[in-house]
Amino acid sequence: MGLDQSFGKSAISVEEARRLINSGMHLVEEETVGLHAALGRVTATALKALTTSPPFDVSAMDGYAVRAAEISSVGMRLPLSGASRAGTPVVPTLSPGTCMRIFTGAPVPIGADAIVIQEDVEADGGRIVFQAQARPGLYIRPAGLNFKVGDEIIEAGRTISARDIGLLAAAGHGTVAVRRRPRIAVLSTGDELANDPAGAGAGRIFDANRPALLALVAAWGGEPLDLGIALDDDAAITTALQGLDADLLLVTGGASVGDHDRVRPALKALGLSFNFWKIRMRPGKPLMFGALGNMPVLGLPGNPVSALVCALLFLKSAIAAMTGGDASGPHFETARLTSPIGKTGERDDYLRATVTASDGELTVAAFAEQDSSMLALLAAANALLFRPAGAPAAAAGETVKVVRFDTLAGY
Ligand code: AMP
Ligand code: MG
Fold first, then answer.
1. For residue 189, which atom of ligand 1 is closest to its CA?
2. 12 alpha carbon to ligand 1 midpoint, in Å?
């Protein structure tokens, strides 16, 4: 029985598959890392400011600190009484009837309530002539403008950006509690697969899936474990998995029902329990999911495009499910077709496409060729065009959903 005959009621939707896969993941423990190592990690807890920023009222400009009431009109003159610099340990006091030199980031002297910028004054001997009026609060950043001690500045489950690292540093954090990187093992299966030019030969092709999947694991916050290539042979697959300690096992190839598709029989012999193995999508129908003991196992199709489209749809969210991040799947945007497109069959289509941003909107064109072995077209594409099962033909100008690859770090 071919796949198309066996494909039927037992097939499930992409959303259902994602839900099942995510719920099969186990949240990994937390660990503490230095801020320098926090980029891309997921916060294990919400984080509060350990300090107030700025810690006191500071000047936003280089200029002169004054009492605004004393500079109520243009042309006022005041004698200069000292200076306030950034980093000074004591906040100076401004005597009535005087002004004080002040610099950006310096504490506003006690008694002052405005800064007149240096461009708006002239010096006349020992006096400063104000060419602008002051009003209370002018060019002053009040204490706590940025954040106050105890404010929640970062939520739990957030993937830390460089901007977040800056904020955490400003708020007094030198380390941060994050989720451990899930250990994700990747095994390729296939008698035809070769690792590198040394293994090339008649009937061999190079293993494309494992290098790409290992890269995605790293890009999406996991710790990749390379299990190499196993032959289409139960013993070889069993051997490759011996002693494996991972939070998730990814296997590609051999998941269908042909005589040489040994992944399911081999894993079954090891005690794998299956959740499902068919998904209503193209490319990528033969997807399987189960668990070997406590370890979830995701079997991706062997065709490289199918494997990588499934990774886009399920792997990033699975990693997020393990780290407490956003596991909702890729972000879809609306784009306008530049050329007509045919109707969809009984599966959702994810077509390799080119999205262009022009005049404030996205336009999209799918490649005419969509064979799932053609990795060159996946590399050439910058998006997938999504067409739900049963969609009618669409004309140029109609809108469709797309997933842009640059929204998926590293994809
Ligand atoms: P399978 O799922 O094992 O039936 O493989 C489907 C197709 O994908 C076959 O043409 C395989 O040769 C090819 N394929 C399987 N695994 C890989 C891989 N790791 N790299 C490149 N092509 C692969
Ligand atoms: Mg195979």
1. 16
2. 23
